[in-house]
Amino acid sequence: MRKYFEDFVVGQSWESASITLSEEDIIRFAREYDPQPMHTDPAAAANGRFGGLIASGWQVTALSMKLFVESGAYGETPMVGMGIDELRWRKPVRPGDTLSVLREVAALERSEKKPGYGIVKTRVSVRNQDGDVVMSMISLGQVPARPAADVIPEVTPPR
């Protein structure tokens, strides 16, 4: 089902399915995108600041998008990312952690430059199996507004 800007409501929220990260998942992602020992080398990570292997924050961020898209919250509507504010990696994510995403509409704004679109600002929280927030951010996405032909006119009752 296609959704339009007008279909979103401040306070509306979605929760994703969950995903469990293995040591292999963490190492594979990090070798390609964030090759630091705390993400790629279990022995070095054991002697490091976190006392063991942890996932790259960028992996957690990418997974939050994957889980959100798979939740179907925007349906068939293409959502164009416009930016991220207040990205915070709050707790380390370790092998065996199970993550899920809660996304809540925080604000809606019709685009002044492109009136055929609106901006949906969502508050994103990624939680582990214990309910701890491991990552949070504010996401800005552009979605199409309802075409004029699809707008149902308000009918004024006869007097």
The largest sheet is:
6 strands, antiparallel
Mean pLDDT: 91
Helix content range: 10-25%
Number of helices: 4
- Uncertain runs are none
Strand content: 25-35%
- Assign the CATH topology of the domain at 5-20 and 56-147: Thiol Ester Dehydrase, Chain A
Q: Compute the CA-based radius of gyration.
A: 20 Å
Structural class: alpha+beta
Oligomer: single chain
Spatial shape: elongated
- CATH homologous superfamily identity of the domain at 5-20 and 56-147: Hotdog Thioesterase
CATH architecture of the domain at 5-20 and 56-147: Roll
Distance between the termini: 38 Å
Q: Using DSSP, what is the number of strands?
A: 6
List the helices and strands and how they pair.
Layout: E1 13-15, E2 19-20, H1 23-33, H2 37-40, H3 42-46, H4 57-71, E3 80-89, E4 98-110, E5 117-127, E6 133-144
Antiparallel strand pairs: 1-4, 2-4, 3-6, 4-5, 5-6
Walk me through this protein's architecture.
Helix content is 22%, strand content 32%. It is built from 4 helices and 6 strands, in the order E-E-H-H-H-H-E-E-E-E. Strands 1, 2, 3, 4, 5 and 6 form a 6-stranded antiparallel sheet that branches. The radius of gyration is 20 Å and the shape is elongated.
Distinctive features:
159 residues, Thiol Ester Dehydrase, Chain A, 6-stranded antiparallel sheet, 4 helices, 22% helix
Offer a concise description of the structure.
The chain has four helices and six strands, in the order ββααααββββ. With 159 residues, the protein is of the alpha+beta class.
